[in-house]
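Supplementary notes (optional reading)

For those who missed the lab, this is the record we used. Protein: Transporter, major facilitator family protein. Length: 515 residues.
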Amino acid sequence: MRKPSLPFRKQMSYAIGQLGWSTLINIIGLHQVYFYLPPAPKPGQECFPDLIEKMAFWGLSTIGVVAAFGRLWDAFTDPIIANSSDRFSSRFGRRIPFLFLGGLPAAVFCWLIFVPPHNFISSTNLVWMTGCMLLFYLFLTVYVTPFFALIPELGHTPEERLNLSTYISVTYALGIIVASTEPMIANVLKSNFVFDADLSVQTLVSRQYALGILCVFAAICMYFPVFTIHEKTYCESEASSVPFKEAIFLTFKNKNFLFFALSDLCYFLALTILTTGISYYVTVLLELEREFVTQLLTVMLLVSFAFYPVVNWIARKIGKKKTVLFGFYVFLGLFLSIYFIGKDELPLPPYIQGYLIVAVAAVPIAILGILPNAILADIAELDSLKTGSKREGLFYAGRTFMQKLGQTLAVLIFSSVILLGLDRETKKNVSPSVTGIIAPSVSEPKSESEKNLKGETKISMESTICKVEEVEAGGELGVRLTGPLASAFCLLAIFLFGKYKEDETLEEIAKIRGN
């Protein structure tokens, strides 16, 4: 007997769950690097205490190495959690119990990442951050992997799955906006409460409380689907009996999924190069202030929102595959244009160039934010109809594994490419943060500056010397080359995704279901 469709209000509850975990993951993406690798303040600005050593090895930042390690850890736990969810059975269903288990700990450990034991540079802080980050990613995986596996089970038709994918894409973008409000909340707290006489510690604690407020909000959102959706009532699912190794083999044996996952790896590698480099494009190529990055991201998200209903309508008219390929081609041209922005030959002012880049990027971001989850749901449904094995969790875990592998490779590749064009002495002082949207530029003070600072402030565990930001040479050639490099991976993504057979997939689903 076919299960009833999920009512609209419960679809909204499901989407609110995505708002919660999106807030958490974007707290990490937007604030972790800036928190542990703060930019040196300019004269007259308030300082923020350094908490860990900046450099690790081979010119890579400590926070960059730890972040890459965290992503890899997250990627390898995905299939384990996915298979456990696929094989689990209870009176509450096989997905919702995992959401219940993972939500609160993920929010708690997200906050604890920003609450190290000491307010000065300490190896204990590094160990604390690493441990909390690994636990955060573990519990986030416990929540997110079964969460995505619910899409093909709650959405009984391609149209229902497309609607769910659209709603969660919107709430994911809203999560970015919510996570970005931390500075505003911190400023309100700092203005109205006194946490410490030391201004740098006052700023630190204000940010910690602000992040705590956001984590509480995220936790509440994550439990909306847990308490409002009765999985057994709406989900067409049954526990898989396939052993873990065999399930992994069968999942990646599916050619449609294999081409989809490999194209996703290339796409996220290219996209992460772009998001990692956006601060460099603004400051090195366009020669604008770093604060302009925030304006660009806001414009990009708003324009992307405007295209959501258009993407949904076009996908119904011409198909999801053609729409995604169009998005890839737009990104291909956009990545190539990175090489030319900021050149004197261009007649447009730098600000206009920046706005044009993000306005164009908003179109493929809307497309690729909505449709891939719906496409994967189609692939997973056909596989379960043909094999009799429900392995939706592993399909989504396989996708997230490829995404995270692409993101990790992008961080490491980007950090090497931007050094092209720099001489040996300049490389020593290159900005160590190449791991996130905000890329602080910090130079060590010259010997004379050090003497002045030492004369003004004593180094102790209770106070922090704030280094004044200096002009830093940038490797313009390396920054420009990241655009064509990203376009090469985008071209590979187009080739691989082109092999996905959408028409055959949908026809077989309809035929087996008797529609």
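If you only remember one thing from this example: Confidence is low (pLDDT under 50) at residues 422-474.
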